[in-house]
Each structure stands twice: as structure tokens, then as C-alpha cells.
């Protein structure tokens, strides 16, 4: 018997029609080590269990989510690109929309999900930002595509929320990750990469801080979230770094056209 899924709602200031939440591993039907609400089709879980979990999730949403084939890249799925897609899912690591009740979704298990909403509430975005995508510009690409969907929309008119990701006390990296962010200021690099005592060329990286810096550099002023760690919270979150064989949770956002009395408003 499944229990109701637990929702983590962004603590951000956005228009009322913007609806968003992040799932946890609570609820669902998947068996260990994917227990319980695994939403990732390619994690190694039984297909029917994942499909049943997605069916459970759908009861909380106005439509089936737009699932992406995430590849740690920087491509963005747009309404136009989705119209031209003959068969899916779309290979991308971010998506944007200005269509009411179109649900954007990002799957993660340590990488950072970042949700975006315009202050007018007419455009939304969702990005999968692991260190590769983050350093490559997936957040900037998402913001640019959002601006192309609304006349006069500027980055400073967009609000961002950083969802659950691997925290700064758990993200051990090598010099390759540090080098990927070499274009950022030395002050940020010194703060975001803390050398690990006794481990030459090993660092604890702060993914949240790196994302904040890139968002601010691109003009985003209103930035929320960044207060979770997937690795250190096994009750709520899947973590690839912690468990290797594990499920995926979802961060979802849409523009609602329903009234507050609706079940999924």
C-alpha cells in the first residue's frame, strides 16, 4: 500500500499561478534499493514500478510532465522544439514554457535542480545542473530561452530556486572540477572549493555557491533555496554519491490556469 507523496515546495516569492514542488523518496511502490517513489526509468528499477510511481505523481499534476533525456549537457527544450519532435523524450538538460498547465520536470539524485519563474508569472524554466552542466552554461541558456518567450523579459525579472542537491560537506571533487569553473572569480573559487586536509588536489565543492554566483553574474537577483543535502538525508532523498544504485526524485513546475479550489492548484 502506498502513502501520499511528500512534497517540498520552494520557499520563494513568485506569482500565485506559479506552482512547483519537489518529490522525495517517500511514497511509491519501488523496492530496495529504489524504495519508494523512484521516478527514473534508467536507474535500474523495475519498469512497472517506475510507471506506477509516475502514475501516482500524475494525480498531483494538471498534465503528464515533460520528461527529458538528461545527458549532463546544456541544451534547452522549448515549446517550438517540442512541436518539432517526432518521438521523445527530448535530449536536453533544461526546459522552458509559457503554456499554462505544461509541467516541466527535472530528475536528480545529487545534481542540482534549478527552477525559474518570471515575476509576471508568464514564463517558467527548469534546469538540471550538475557540475558539468553548471560550468557549461545550462543555467544561462535556460534564462536566455525564457527571455525569448516573453517580450521585454530580462534576467532581473526572473526568480530562481535551487532544489535539493549534494551539499558542500559531501561533494568531494578533484582538480578537473575546479578547472571547469576557472572562469569564475578567484574569490568565489577560493570560497567554493575548500582543500581537504591530507588529500592533495582534493576539494569539497559548494555547488550552491557556484550556481548563485553564475546566476547573479547573469543578472538574476532573486535567488532562493540551497539549504538541503541529498547525501546526508537518506530518509528523504536519493543520492548516487551515497548509494551508487539508487532512484531519482523530481522537481516540477507549471503555470496554473485553475482556481484555488482545484485539487492540484
Folded structure, characterized:
This protein has helices spanning 47-58, 79-83, 131-136, 138-148, 175-180, 186-192, 207-217, 240-243; strands at residues 7-8, 18-23, 68-69, 76-77, 90-91, 94-97, 104-108, 112-118, 124-129, 158-162, 172-173, 193-195, 203-205, 222-225, 249-255. Residues 260-265 have low confidence and may be disordered. It contains 8 helices and 15 strands. α6 packs antiparallel against α7 (207-217). With 265 residues, it is of the alpha+beta class. Helices cover 23% and strands 23% of the residues. The chain starts with 6 loop residues before the first strand and ends in a 10-residue tail after the last strand. The chain has one domain (11-168, 219-255): 4-Layer Sandwich (CNF1/YfiH-like putative cysteine hydrolases). The strands form 4 sheets. Strands 4-6-9-8-10-14 form a 6-stranded mixed beta sheet.
